[in-house]
Amino acid sequence: MIERYALSPIKDIWGLKQQYERWLEVELAVIEAFEDFNQAPKGTSEKIRKKASIDVEKILEIEKVVDHDVIAFIKGVTDEMGDEARYFHKGLTSSDIVDTSWALAMKRAGEMIIREYEKFIDVLKKKALMYKNTITVGRTHGIHAEPTSFGLKLLSFLAESERNMERLKKSIYQVSQGKLSGAVGNYANISPEVEKVALEKLGLRATKVSTQIVPRDIHAEFLNALSFLGSGLERLATEIRHLQKTEVLEVQEPFKKGQRGSSAMPHKKNPIICERITGMARMLRSYTITGYENIVLWHERDISHSSAERVFIPDACMTAYYITNKAIYLIKNLVVNEDRMLETFERSYNLVYSQRVLLGLIEKGMSRENAYKLVQKNALYAWENRKDFKQVIKEESEINTKMNSDEINELFSNNYFLRNIEEIYKRFDF
């Protein structure tokens, strides 16, 4: 991830020094477990903890010779140790350390994303409540459909966000699996009991069956959950982008004092946050493809997955965190133009009430087919001639025989469309 989109604290997980620190954390947990089972002298882990020194440059220099990052790490960390060094990495293979470390990193990053996403949900919930009874035009196929509540629009995104939160929590639970089972996963040189205790010390649990690695479908599920999160934020961002169009302008992104929208056109206020969320959500979805491809490896393992996930796992976590952080700012400071929402009805000449007229005629005894044809004829006339649909209806003699002016006015009332909004809101915890 480039620095522009890498935010603390989540970016601080992914440095090379932090990686080595996690590897050491795993090694120490194993040695502590050895002590618990009297397979290493008491105090061995404490001696190693005191003597272990992570010198990134030194490890990288060793790696230039051995061409193996874990061997370079082991050699670099244990160089200054005494007899206790023989318990370091005992019975383990590189992937025991690397994959268990991945679990620690993804769990910790996932928990950071959860905390940020909780803030987003809270902000979205407040906005949905604030605009519960704010009337706006609903759209299907991009065309005016029927009146609805702007709060209800936001409530749709809230419901999706809650589902995405549950998906993410489940995936973090799933990804919190390590393995300390040796070169082909058969515990030839380390016991399942040591694995269990060591992983518990790390806040992890053992993969039910491993090969030399933790199966990558577990990681793919985590990536998939991040992709869902991104797609949900993108759907919200896309809605705002449409509503910020000049000819609509029902909502606007926040625009800071001193901010500039275009190097050429001083009048511009562009939905740059929404567009950034859209682009980065695409990145999140792209990571899932490689995540799925990493599931299929040769026999007990190959390393075709390794180079790819060193890129996309950190990037996916930082991307998800970044766009969640930006979505919080976006929704918290969203400009909602309620007056423009009301003006929008006039742009389609109040045609959004056509179904109310249709149902009104049916209730008066007209067949659905005849009522539909009659309403459609008058609706198309209003649109083509830029006339107010309500006035056109009042001037239609065939409709006048069925209902009077007051009854027609009632069909054009917005209150009708909001009468069940409260019931939907009761489904949420406000």
UniProtKB/TrEMBL annotation:
It catalyses: (2S)-2-[5-amino-1-(5-phospho-beta-D-ribosyl)imidazole-4-carboxamido]succinate = 5-amino-1-(5-phospho-beta-D-ribosyl)imidazole-4-carboxamide + fumarate; N(6)-(1,2-dicarboxyethyl)-AMP = fumarate + AMP. GO terms for molecular function: (S)-2-(5-amino-1-(5-phospho-D-ribosyl)imidazole-4-carboxamido) succinate lyase (fumarate-forming) activity; N6-(1,2-dicarboxyethyl)AMP AMP-lyase (fumarate-forming) activity. Residues 349-429 form the Adenylosuccinate lyase C-terminal domain. CDD domains: Adenylsuccinate_lyase_1. InterPro entries: AdenyloSucc_lyase_C (IPR019468), Fumarase/histidase_N (IPR024083), Fumarate_lyase_CS (IPR020557), Fumarate_lyase_fam (IPR000362), Fumarate_lyase_N (IPR022761), L-Aspartase-like (IPR008948), Pur_lyase (IPR004769). Keywords: Lyase, Purine biosynthesis. GO terms for biological process: 'de novo' AMP biosynthetic process. Pathway: Purine metabolism; IMP biosynthesis via de novo pathway; 5-amino-1-(5-phospho-D-ribosyl)imidazole-4-carboxamide from 5-amino-1-(5-phospho-D-ribosyl)imidazole-4-carboxylate: step 2/2; Purine metabolism; AMP biosynthesis via de novo pathway; AMP from IMP: step 2/2. SMART domains: ADSL_C. One of its GO terms (cellular component) is cytosol. It is an enzyme of class 4 (lyase). Belongs to the lyase 1 family. Adenylosuccinate lyase subfamily. This is Adenylosuccinate lyase. It comes from Oceanotoga teriensis.
